[in-house]
């Protein structure tokens, strides 16, 4: 009734590590990874175990469904991030809002996990943000490192090694940055789930606190918010609700065709070597 595990193994092991690398911590993907390793260990003792094969099939279906939901969640952020067809690529919209009464300006920078280096140089360069705005309201746990410190030097090395990954900024102008030092991972999941469920109005405790903080700034303050994509959904909604008007919209390419190929190639190579190392450990 089932395909033998020795036939499925190469594809399954490779896929499990690919998902594990892309989304470490997603419960269903972690479950998939555990089941795959368990099946590999079990194969050495009972390759015909129907129970293991059934669990494996259930895990594969769960990951497929979770992948579909993840794609739909990104599509629900239309107006913030979208897939462009010709030429192929991922684009985002940067918006600048202004309140007609208080003259406060709020610029929203969507920050994805992976993007082209030129985009991160714009939205996560601490010195540029401090130079161009009066206040930089950072996402929880994303305040900049002090330039010259040990952590800042390490961050700069990581940025040179992994320019496609969004890392915390480094800056000398610490007084211009505002935010909460620690982040609650549950709130990150809530923001993602809110977009996934299409909540109307959106619910996002972390972004709500940010909007309340902006309300305490003096009139005429120019604020920038380099925040995660899913939080921007709530911020767009709340700013309009508070009477802000979108004065400017700019469409920027986040990931182009070349960047997508390069990142995919790096992920494939890393996944292959990790899979190879673990399989060597398992099978000797």
Give the topology, please.
Blueprint: H1 5-22, H2 27-43, H3 50-75, E1 81-84, E2 89-98, E3 105-111, H4 117-123, H5 126-132, E4 135-137, E5 145-146, H6 150-161, E6 170-171, E7 177-178, H7 185-197, H8 205-215, E8 222-228, H9 229-241, E9 245-255, H10 257-283
Parallel strand pairs: 3-8, 4-7, 4-8, 5-6
Antiparallel strand pairs: 1-2, 2-3, 2-9
Helix pairs in contact: 1-2, 1-10, 2-3, 3-7, 7-9, 8-9
Explained architecture:
The chain is an alpha/beta fold and 284 residues long. The chain folds into two domains: 5-75, no CATH class; 84-256, no CATH class. The chain contains ten helices and nine strands. The protein has helices spanning 5-22, 27-43, 50-75, 117-123, 126-132, 150-161, 185-197, 205-215, 229-241, 257-283; strands spanning 81-84, 89-98, 105-111, 135-137, 145-146, 170-171, 177-178, 222-228, 245-255. The strands form two sheets. Strands 1, 2, 3, 4, 7, 8 and 9 form a seven-stranded mixed sheet that branches. Helix 6 links the parallel strand 5 (145-146) and strand 6 (170-171). Helix 1 (5-22) crosses helix 10 (257-283), helix 3 crosses helix 7 and helix 7 crosses helix 9. The model is unreliable at 1-49 and 67-72 (pLDDT under 50).
**Structural class assignment:** alpha/beta
Q: What Rg do the Cα atoms give?
A: 22 Å
Strand content: 15-25%
Biggest sheet, open or closed, and with what strands and sense? 7 strands, mixed
Q: What is the H/E string?
A: HHHEEEHHEEHEEHHEHEH
Mean pLDDT: 77
The termini sit apart by: 30 Å
Shape: globular
Structure summary, number of beta strands: 9
Q: Can you give the helix content as a percent range?
A: 40-55%
Low-confidence stretches: 1-49, 67-72
H/I helix tally = 10
The tally of domains stands at 2
Transmembrane segments: 6-24, 260-283
Keywords: Membrane, Transmembrane, Transmembrane helix
């Amino acid at each position: 009734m089932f395909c033998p595990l020795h036939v499925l193994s190469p594809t399954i092991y490779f896929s499990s590590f690919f998902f594990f690398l892309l989304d470490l911590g997603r419960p269903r993907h972690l479950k998939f990874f555990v089941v795959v390793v368990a099946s590999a260990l079990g194969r050495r003792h009972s390759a015909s175990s129907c129970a293991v094969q059934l669990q494996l099939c259930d895990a594969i279906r769960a990951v497929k469904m979770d992948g579909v939901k993840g794609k739909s969640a990104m599509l629900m952020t239309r107006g913030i991030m979208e897939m462009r067809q010709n030429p192929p690529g991922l684009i985002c919209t940067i918006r600048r809002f202004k309140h007609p009464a208080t003259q406060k300006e709020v610029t929203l920078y969507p920050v994805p996990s992976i993007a082209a280096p030129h985009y991160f140089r714009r939205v996560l360069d601490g010195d540029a943000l401090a130079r161009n705005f009066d206040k930089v309201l950072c996402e929880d746990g994303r305040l900049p490192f002090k330039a010259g410190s040990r952590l800042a030097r390490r961050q700069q090395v990581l940025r040179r090694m992994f320019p496609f990954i969004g890392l915390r900024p480094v800056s000398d102008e610490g007084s211009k940055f505002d935010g909460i030092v620690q982040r609650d991972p549950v709130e990150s999941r809530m923001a993602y789930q809110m977009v996934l469920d299409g909540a109307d109005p959106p619910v996002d405790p972390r972004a709500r606190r940010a909007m309340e903080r902006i309300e305490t700034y003096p009139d005429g303050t120019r604020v920038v918010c380099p925040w995660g994509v899913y939080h921007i959904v709530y911020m767009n909604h709340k700013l309009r609700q508070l009477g802000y008007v979108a004065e400017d919209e700019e469409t920027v390419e986040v990931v182009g065709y070349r960047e997508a190929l390069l990142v995919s190639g790096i992920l494939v190579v890393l996944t292959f070597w990790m899979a190879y190392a673990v399989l060597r450990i398992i099978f000797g």
